[in-house]
Amino acid sequence: MPSAEGARPVGRGPKVRAAVLDATLAELAEGGYAALTIDNVARRAGVHKTTIYRRWPDREALVGDVLGEHIAMELPIADTGSLAADLQHLAEAFVAWVASPPGRMIFTAIYSDAARIPGIAETRRELFEYGPRRAGVVVDRAINRGELPADTDPAAVIRTLIAPIYFQLSVLGEPPTKTTAAQSAQIALSAAQAGVFSRTAAKRT
Amino acid sequence: MPSAEGARPVGRGPKVRAAVLDATLAELAEGGYAALTIDNVARRAGVHKTTIYRRWPDREALVGDVLGEHIAMELPIADTGSLAADLQHLAEAFVAWVASPPGRMIFTAIYSDAARIPGIAETRRELFEYGPRRAGVVVDRAINRGELPADTDPAAVIRTLIAPIYFQLSVLGEPPTKTTAAQSAQIALSAAQAGVFSRTAAKRT
Known about the structure:
Chains A, B: InterPro entries: Homeodomain-like_sf (IPR009057), HTH-type_TetR-like_transc_reg (IPR050109), HTH_TetR (IPR001647), Tet_transcr_reg_TetR-rel_C_sf (IPR036271), TetR_C (IPR011075). Chains A, B: Keywords: DNA-binding, Transcription, Transcription regulation. The structure is a homodimer of 205-residue chains. Chain A is mostly helical and 205 residues long. Chain A has helices at residues 13-31, 38-45, 49-55, 59-70, 83-99, 101-110, 118-135, 137-144, 154-170, 178-193, 199-204.
């Protein structure tokens, strides 16, 4: 939104916006949130910094905006008729996403100090909490086919599939591979089959 | 180490050092690395900032030092004669550690922009790579008792136990509980029993 004083339109709007957001993501990935400055974003985007200030009051607004744009990760959800294969597809799609340029940049950003911005915490929950809930449909189908106990918690299965991939990337600092994906899918599958995610079992502990 | 010009001893050495490191950890936990300043550390520690600069050239050195001091997390490694119980003990000890004040502060620090300091990355590896390797002895014992396939990768079992606890804390932002610990131990156990961490199985994928 242009400020009251800057009544003239700011160049070619959507193009400028895209350039600024791309530059922000690149700066974040390179130097983290601590080192992010509007000056550097402006330089990289090839715009004057007043152009940025006209649209974004501060760097928090900029970062919130950029992650909002890139969060639309829609993992393809397979329906092969077998839970093992569905989980394997899901794990591979997640591994591919975290290895992609937007995936990598978003990971870097949400684990910089930018994570202290409330909007970023929300982005992280979207990725890792609501996402698994949506993908839980592959577990629902397996329950309906009689492959798993009826009281299996679908989101817990998906979180278990994601956790090792996430761990390898963010803790060990090693890019997850197809082998990581296969093993993560097998961990989630064998635990689910053993009844670990059965809601009554959880209550018993 | 005192600088060449400051030949006099700096107050009561170890006491000052402890106060400065405590203040650094508290500042990190409160505001992250991005907001960490020598000024604030000095104010919180109740020392003059030249006292800090005499020992630590910059904030990176300070943060590296503070994490080095607190990293000595020695998880008690049980030997109950049952893998299920040993894993459960390990998971509970890890959950207790991440909930403790030093555990919480270290977690906050290693996931701030301070993580970009090479020394911090090393700290994280120490926590999550060498730690699991040491704890792998409970898996070795289970293999010797015939509880698991002989070619099970011990560190992979321990990482699988840690990953969900870590995921809940750092992604979902929820403090892990005894239930988390029990479920994590069961996930690692059932996957290990199913042969997921068998080294030949990994090669087949």
